[in-house]
């Protein structure tokens, strides 16, 4: 062969005689064609259905390949296609499985992390059911949201739980949802309540077993169409005697640490009080008052007063008075009794938010030691808006 330039070879050219290339099989010479020589000598060879076996490559068809440290396996089932239209990272523990039923789509519009232990699976079926086994946990990171626009069922067995961040996590249940199993709320802390009801509008027809909150009161319905107000009482009491001044000023019944109570606006409250008052024996009258920082829409209470001596049976009828003002109102004629017992029951309706201060007033210095004795009390609880007329199955 006169001209041995590879670029001048044709497909029919062969190397013969002295132009033979030393072989690598058992020390023998091997005869190759010109196309074979050109192929193996090129820096961009074209291979037709080659069998590579164990090979090393950095890219194939412009797809970059990163060699693992020791070895990895990529398996695509026969006749199946793996397609990624965006950059995506799938990460999980050994034996983890992400299974999405045929023709279904798993879409995340924001960051979402699904974390499981080895051997566990997250499965989305046609009905949108997420099922877990023993000790299965759905964890939603702080600031993230899990939203289901259609039916979504979480089914688990023993120890299944939903875990939310301990500082700000919450579960919002919207619409007429039902829970058939036991619900256990987390232990409350100084910053987080175990359960919070949002203020809303009460049912038009009270439903058996319903619990409601309208921003004024809590309600429960134990009998069909018979809503009941849940008692949420505030109270103050004298653990030890509270000293009163020997004069005719208006004075707080309770010590300064708990003598003024804040009341919500536009709310109706029922209240009750019982005062045991010790004084000297100088003649005087006694009045009650419920001082308000903002004028009440109305106040009405029934007051009883007994004048006697401590631990002595009273054989006389009490003074009784119907009072419709919050200012000091005298409840008795002048008396020299050293023990005065007062009981009041009534209703306060607020307009604006206000405070109320239970008070008493003497017409003159009773002399002696003046005090509100231990275990006197005032209690008050909301029953509805300031226009409420009834709660319950009235007709």
Question: Can you offer a commentary on this structure?
Answer:
The chain has 395 residues and is mainly beta. It has 3 domains: 6-55, no CATH class; 92-196, no CATH class; 234-385, Sandwich (Jelly Rolls). 2% of the residues lie in helices and 32% in strands. The protein has 1 helix and 26 strands. The protein has one helix spanning 34-41, and strands spanning 21-25, 28-30, 59-60, 63-64, 97-100, 121-124, 129-131, 137-139, 153-155, 161-163, 211-213, 218-223, 226-229, 234-237, 242-243, 250-252, 261-263, 267-278, 286-292, 298-308, 319-323, 329-330, 339-349, 354-362, 371-372, 377-385. Strands 14, 15, 18, 20, 21, 23, 25 and 26 form an 8-stranded antiparallel sheet that branches. The longest helix has 8 residues, at 34-41. The chain is rod-shaped and about 140 Å long. The model is unreliable at 22-26 (pLDDT under 50).
Q: Outline of this structure?
A:
This protein is an all-beta fold. The chain contains 1 helix and 26 strands.
Topology of helices and strands:
Elements: E1 21-25, E2 28-30, H1 34-41, E3 59-60, E4 63-64, E5 97-100, E6 121-124, E7 129-131, E8 137-139, E9 153-155, E10 161-163, E11 211-213, E12 218-223, E13 226-229, E14 234-237, E15 242-243, E16 250-252, E17 261-263, E18 267-278, E19 286-292, E20 298-308, E21 319-323, E22 329-330, E23 339-349, E24 354-362, E25 371-372, E26 377-385
Parallel strand pairs: 5-6, 7-9, 8-10
Antiparallel strand pairs: 1-2, 3-4, 11-12, 12-13, 14-26, 15-25, 16-24, 17-24, 18-23, 18-25, 18-26, 19-22, 19-24, 20-21, 20-23
């Amino acid at each position: 062969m006169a001209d041995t330039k590879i670029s001048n070879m044709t497909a029919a050219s062969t190397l013969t005689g002295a132009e033979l290339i030393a072989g690598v099989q058992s020390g023998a010479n091997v005869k190759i064609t010109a196309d074979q020589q050109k192929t193996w000598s090129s820096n961009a060879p074209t291979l037709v259905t080659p069998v590579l076996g164990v090979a090393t490559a950095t890219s194939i068809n412009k797809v970059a390949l990163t060699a693992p440290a020791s070895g990895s396996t990529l398996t695509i089932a026969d006749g199946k296609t793996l397609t990624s239209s965006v950059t995506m990272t799938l990460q999980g523990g050994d034996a983890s499985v992400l299974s999405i039923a045929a023709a279904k789509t798993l879409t995340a519009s924001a960051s979402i992390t699904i974390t499981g232990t080895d051997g566990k699976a997250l499965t989305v079926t046609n009905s949108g059911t997420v099922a877990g086994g023993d000790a299965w946990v759905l964890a939603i990171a702080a600031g993230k949201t899990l939203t289901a626009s259609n039916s979504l069922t979480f089914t688990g067995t023993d120890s299944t739980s939903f875990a939310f961040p301990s500082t700000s996590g919450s579960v919002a249940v919207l619409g007429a949802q039902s829970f058939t199993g036991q619900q256990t709320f987390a232990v409350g802390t100084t910053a987080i309540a175990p359960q919070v009801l949002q203020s809303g509008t009460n049912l038009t027809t009270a439903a058996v077993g319903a619990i409601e909150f309208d921003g004024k009161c809590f309600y429960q319905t134990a009998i069909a169409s018979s809503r009941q107000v849940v008692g949420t009482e505030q109270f103050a009491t004298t653990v030890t005697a509270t000293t009163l001044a020997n004069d005719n000023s208006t004075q707080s019944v309770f010590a300064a640490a708990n003598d003024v109570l804040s009341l919500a606006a536009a709310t109706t409250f029922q209240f009750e009080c019982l005062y045991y008052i010790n004084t000297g024996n100088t003649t005087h009258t006694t009045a009650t008052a419920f001082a308000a920082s903002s004028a009440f829409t109305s106040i009405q209470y029934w007051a009883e007063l007994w004048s006697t001596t401590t631990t002595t049976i009273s054989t006389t009828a009490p003074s009784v008075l119907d009072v419709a003002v919050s200012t000091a109102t005298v409840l008795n004629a002048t008396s020299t009794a050293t023990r005065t017992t007062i009981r009041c029951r009534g209703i306060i309706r607020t307009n604006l938010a206000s405070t109320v201060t239970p008070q008493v007033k003497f017409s003159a210095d009773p002399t002696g030691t003046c005090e509100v004795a231990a275990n006197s009390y005032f209690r008050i609880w909301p029953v509805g808006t300031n226009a409420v007329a009834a709660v319950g199955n009235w007709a």
